[in-house]
Amino acid sequence: MEELSYYEILEVSKDATLAEIKKAYRKLALKYHPDKNPGNKEAEEKFKLINEAYAVLSDEEKRRMYDLYGKEGLENQGGGFRSSSMDEFMDIFNSMFGEAFGFGSSRRQKSSMPYPLDIDIEIDLEFNEAIFGCEKEVNIYYKTPCKECHGKGGKVQTCDYCGGHGQIVMRQGFMTFAQECPQCKGSGEIVVQKCSSCKGSGAKVNEESIKVSIPAGVDIGNRLRVPAKGNVDNRGFRGDLYIHFNITDDEHFIRDGNDIYIEVPVFFTQVLLSEEIKVPSLEGELSIKLNPKVRDKEHFIFYNKGVPFVNNPSKRGRFIAQIKIIYPKKLNNEQKELIKKLQESFGVESKPQKSIFEKTFEKIKKWVKH
User: Fold this and answer.
1) What are phi and psi of 282, to 5 degrees?
2) How many Cβ atoms are within 10 Å of 347's Cβ, its own excluded?
3) Are 299 and 284 in contact (CB under 8 A)?
4) The dihedral sign for the CA sequence 281, 285, 286, 287
5) pLDDT tens, 186-214?
6) Topology alike, domains 107-140+205-248 and 253-326
7) Options 3.30.450.20, 2.40.50.320, 3.40.50.2300, 2.60.260.20; which CATH number does 253-326 get?
8) pTM above 0.85, yes or no
9) What is the pLDDT of residue 173?
10) What is the C-alpha separation between 123 and 247, in angstroms, rounded?
11) How far apart are CA 223 and CA 210, in angstroms?
12) d(Cα 179, Cα 91) in Å, to the nearest integer?
């Protein structure tokens, strides 16, 4: 089978910008994160590939070498992505998404329960709710131990694969590392006869409605930790709830991290006449003074007018207004006459190519004669 390129793995084009690569990584890493796909080896391998691709394409020098020579070029330069531990991939993921406010690294609980103590859910946010923060009422479903089998799922015995340790030691080259036992899922025990009450799940499912405060500035890829709102174990200890976000796009505002972009259409006459225009921002109106030197796609940047940093609300990103100059698609006779008069009023200045190329035309005539 043909090996996918790093660009194909991240589902971006070869000329993708760093921002596009980062956005694609966030989306895919969240989708295939091991915590969201427990026991899914295919998702785990996909997660590794996504991190491997991001580690290369997000680094300017590694990306250049990869574009020129492929993976072989990276290996020859000592820049390959060689990792044998899942923790290293998790570090890349967590470094992207931060840790304060419960975002980023999870303190997953090792437990003898047949289910994880932490819970991951997704909620939908409107564009403005993510920018300014909000309060949401969320329905969650959590597990408590089955009273009949005390959360074990039935009659159990020591796992013969790991000897009851819950982990197996793997050796790769000169490196040795431990991983969760694939047979008992880290519990050290296996069920030999399922509980008739819980059908082997070891749990009873409960429903709860909670109110959650969403801080200003959350983005896709962030996750919010709500302490002690996860599943419950035999000791009465309750895991945590982790909330992931789906955020709707806005019709006019485009978000890139903590920066906000807006495209501002202006008619060419507004530019020539140096008009002052008003544009909407996250805080109301902002003024832009046009002038004849303004070019199409030029940026007017307003600092500290963008999205609040989720870990530092006093700091904000930029608000960037991109000018889009509009020219008339069609002129009527009256408009044509007015344009001609305007052009004539500038004299020689209105036909710059004539004076610039006059000598060139004469030179070409001499060339042709020869």
Assistant:
1) -65, -20
2) 8
3) no
4) positive
5) 778 888 889 999 988 889 999 999 999 99
6) yes
7) 2.60.260.20
8) no
9) 55
10) 9
11) 17
12) 16
pLDDT digits (tens, 9 = 90+) for 246-300: 999 999 999 999 999 999 999 999 999 999 999 999 999 999 999 999 999 999 9
Q: Which of 115-119, 141-145, 211-215 has the lowest mean pLDDT?
A: 115-119
* Cβ within 8 Å of residue 88, ≥6 positions away: none
Question: CA–CA separation, 149 vs 157, rounded Å?
Answer: 13
For the chain, what is the mean pLDDT?
Answer: 84
Rounded distance between C-alpha atoms, residue 17 and residue 76, angstroms: 26
Which residues does 235 contact at the CB level (< 8 Å), separation at least 6? none
Q: Which of 108, 94, 113 is nearest to 29 (CA)?
A: 94
Name 104's Cβ contacts closer than 8 Å, sequence gap at least 6.
94, 95, 97, 98, 223
Q: Would you say residue 46 has pLDDT above 80?
A: yes
Q: Cβ–Cβ contacts within 10 Å for residue 106, how many? A: 18
CB 143 within 8 A of CB 231: yes
Class of CATH domain 107-140+205-248: mainly beta
Least confident of 48-57, 103-112, 305-314: 103-112
**String of b and e for 195-214 (b: at least 16 CB within 10 Å)?**
beebebbbbbeeeeeeebeb
* CB burial of residue 146 (10 Å; 0-12, 13-18, 19+): buried
Instruction: Centre a 10 Å sphere on the Cβ of residue 145 and count the other Cβ atoms it contains.
Output: 23
pLDDT of residue 81: 46
CATH topology of domain 1-97: Helix Hairpins (1.10.287)
For residue 93, give the H/E element and its range: helix 86-97
By the 8 A CB rule, do 47 and 29 touch? Answer: yes
Residue type, 190: I
Nearest to 288 by CA among 321, 241, 311, 315: 321
Judge whether residue 341 has pLDDT over 70. yes
